[in-house]
Amino acid sequence: MSIIKSKIRTIPDYPKPGILFRDITSLLIDPEAFQLTVGMFVERYQSAKLNKIAAIDARGFIPGAALAFQLGVGFVPIRKKGKLPGETISESYALEYGVDHVEIHKDAVMPGENVLIMDDLIATGGTLEASIKLVRSLGGNIHECATIINLPDLGGADRIQKNYNVNVFSICEFEGH
Predict the structure, then answer these.
(1) I need a surface site. Which of 22, 54, 111, 128 has the fewest CB within 10 A?
(2) Does the pLDDT at position 96 exceed 70?
(3) How far is residue 146's CA from residue 42's CA, in Å, rounded to a whole number?
C-alpha cells in the first residue's frame, strides 16, 4: 500500500556502502501508518485460526506482538543465539560473510499448532528459512510468513515458496537491495 510504503525511509550506504537500508522506524513513529499496517495484517489473518505469531528478532517483534495482541493469540520470540533464557533449539543461516543462528524455546510451539512467522522485511530469506525450520522441528504448521517489506530482486520470497511451500505475504515492495 502506497501510504505505508511512503512512510518507510531509505538510508543509503547503511550498514555498509552500496546497501539501501529500508528503515521501518519512520513508519512506527507515525501512529496512523502503524495502525494501518497492523490493521492490514489483522484483516488478513483474523479468520486464519492461528495459535501463535512467531516473530524474528528484533524488528519483527514490533508488528508481531501487536498482531498477536489484536488476534488474541500467543507470541513467540525467535531470537539471536544466546538471548533466550530457557531450553532452546537453534538453526543456522547464511550471512554474506559467515553464518549466524536463531533460537526458539523448546516449549514455544506445540505439535499441530498453526503459526504465522513475522519479520519486518524479507531480502534473501535466510532468517525466515531458519525460522520455518525451527517451528517445523517443534511440530508446528506454518500458515504463512508475513513481512512489511519485500525486496523481490533478492529472491527470498520466491525461494521460501519454492523450497518450503510457504507463501510470503508483504504489504509493500522496494526494488534493489
Answers:
(1) 111
(2) no
(3) 11
How many residues are given for the chain? 177
Annotated active-site positions, please?
59, 96
Tell me how far apart the alpha carbons of residues 166 and 89 are, in angstroms, rounded to a whole number: 21
Assign 1 a pLDDT band (cuts: 50, 70, 90). low
Contact 135, 109 (CB under 8 A): yes
CA distances from 87 to 61, 93, 97 (A): 20, 20, 28
Q: What is the DSSP-derived secondary structure letter of residue 80? A: E
The tally of CA atoms less than 13 A away on the side-chain side of residue 41 is 34
Q: Which amino acid is at 169?
A: F
Note the pTM of the prediction, 2 decimals. Answer: 0.95
d(CA 61, CA 39): 16
